Amino acid sequence: MISPSPEQEECIAYNGSCAITARPGSGKTFCLSRKIIASQKASLPYQGVIAISYTNKASEELEERCRRMGYANSYSFFGTIDRFCLSQIIFPFARHCFGDIPRLEIVDEPPDDREYMAELSEATDETSNQTVLLVKKALHEGVIPLNAIGIIALVILASTSQCKRYLKARYSRFFVDEYQDCGEIQHKIVLQLVELGITGSVVGDVDQAIFGFAGKSPDYLKSLIQDDRFKHFEITENRRCDKSIVAYSLRLLGIDSHQIPPQDDIRIFVPHIDGDEQSVSRAIAGYLPKIMEKYSVEHFNQVAVLARSGKSLDRFAKYCGLPCRLYERTCLDDSYSIPKTMFKEILQLRFSKPLIWPFVDMQLGETASTRAKRAAYEDIRNLAETPAEQLASKIDEIKALAVRLSGTLPNDDDLTALEETLNDVHKLKNAYAPADESEVNCLTYHKAKGLEFDIVFCLDCYEYILPGYDPSQFQQDLCLFYVGVTRAKQACYIPQGTFRHNAKGECKKASRSSFLSLNGVNEMSHSPHWASISNEIFIP
Fold first, then answer.
1. Do both 502 and 440 map to the same domain?
2. 324-326 sheet: strands from edge to edge
3. CB 452 within 8 A of CB 485
4. Could you tell me if 339 and 401 are in contact, meaning their C-beta atoms sit under 8 angstroms apart?
5. Which residue would you say has higher pLDDT here, 371 or 537?
6. Strand 499-501 to strand 507-509: parallel, antiparallel, or no bridges (unpaired)?
7. How far apart (Å, rounded) are the C-alpha atoms in residues 230 and 206?
8. How many domains does the chain have?
């Protein structure tokens, strides 16, 4: 069993509210799970905890980790902020606040005749009479716009004493992961929980804030660090990456707390290749076997190729000649409706059997019988035994299972998206099945967040790509590059071609990314010249 570091031990032992900043590879999930385990001692027998993660998968993994460590509290909530708002605030207490309302339906795209819902989705002031009126109107029509889940929950929480009493009695503590990607509404809900006297712990890294385009901001994490009600802890020891990668990533951010590693111990490489993305892709494939041998990496799925865009990954997969797992988007990714999200979760579980039970248990909650949970578990297991080529024949079973797990009926658009996804078997596997041992992982920087690999190749590190054209996004782009570099455990390669293709497909002379010399990081990398390699050697 891994022992906590002194930094982690201090954080785990603290019983009050705290804001934890944790660098990549420092074990923030480990620390969070240990704090959840420790919270059992401070809770009453009928109390649990609120544990919020940004994806259902992350929530399942956190709950599973806690269960493996002996945590068995049926009163606890593990899930996303939207699921918390729906299951713990809106569904049980909407009627206390607004009287009799019909059965509520979550909609992704409100009907054209309900233009007021767009205004509701943009509302942030839960005390405004206009906001309250909009919430009341939507609920009395039986509709919850997906983008308005947070503000509806906030209005109910702020104005309903029954909801406040329930949360205060039911939960002793709350935990929120990835707080640097918090939005305004979620932050307000967290502050409401604090006002109720529920002890809170939030974890994040301001330097990994990469979702500014979605209205998320590290400023909310910074505000809690300055809040007298929260004690600030820093977990700085990187337990994932080689010390050379750690030193490089800190220097990249302007933190010069590490000495330049000896030249024979540098693990950041910026190889130069004459040619465009085709030449770069072939060079990576040609040099990869020697690189894997150097670092004793046995399987291709321990290697990742990261890029800014899916087009760059498409080009790499086309030209490299290696088996690649290109994590593609499907029709189910076109929106974030509840049914589409549930379909995706079911398909992911079909390829990830160990996580089935935690997911089912979390979705159905403590009110569901063990028989109901077991039935849902067996249904997903049966899907796992069904060949991918035959999943299209199981669409009715998948639909019924999604309704049982989410409580939301899919519309025609949801079902069409599911059908199209199941019928494209190649894309289905590339979207949801993990890479096997013979496949190189190909992901965008955004998708790679939270993952780790022995060897990482960071593509698209050119001016006007990473960083992009917009100077106001420079810091956001820097965080994205920082996330990419810190996915590597043993070595990181940042190949530089002499030419690149722009968004229009035009071949342009490539300009080296300014990130590669920022704060003197060029002193902490090697720049070998890689020869262009003929395509013939990659013929299977």
1. yes
2. 268-269, 488-493, 453-458, 303-307, 440-444, 324-326
3. no
4. no
5. 371
6. antiparallel
7. 17
8. 3
